[in-house]
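Sample pair:
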Amino acid sequence: MRKKIIAFAASSSSRSINRQLVSYATGLLADAEVEILDLNDFELPLFSVDREDQLGQPDLAHSFVKKIENCDGIIISFAEHNGCYSAAYKNIFDWASRIKPKVYQDKPMVLLATSPGGRGGKSVLELALSQIPRFGGQVKASLSVPMFAENFDSDSGAISNDEIGAQLQAAVNCLVAA
């Protein structure tokens, strides 16, 4: 039976390099049904308890939680904004956690990050690795891709560094095997 995988870039940028990375990574999955989510489709008011008291829990937040509930695994590629999560990711996560505190519902996950710089989003990836298990994520593999433009060919939409390509293939294989 084919596994259903959801994937998304934890970014709202239309030019997101993390979206390019997560799209490429899902293409490496053998015999899986993949849905790539766009956080822009889950744009919500900035979370606060006052806003929640006023609005309740928005349908889009419930829809996001349902996507997680109905999948067999998750791939996220984190954009790093000043060493932290992007506001778009943090906001949907905050809303979702009010609906289901264990947001990731014990699903196997692969966590990725990339950036233009040499650290490749390592700060946000380390943050995610320390937090996601507390919210029900079963992290099977993670990978930081440094210097995105030097290691990814945007024309072909593929990793151009063989070593990083092999590491990414091994990471997504962990998800399918889970």
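Residues 3-177 form a domain with the Rossmann fold fold (CATH 3.40.50.360).
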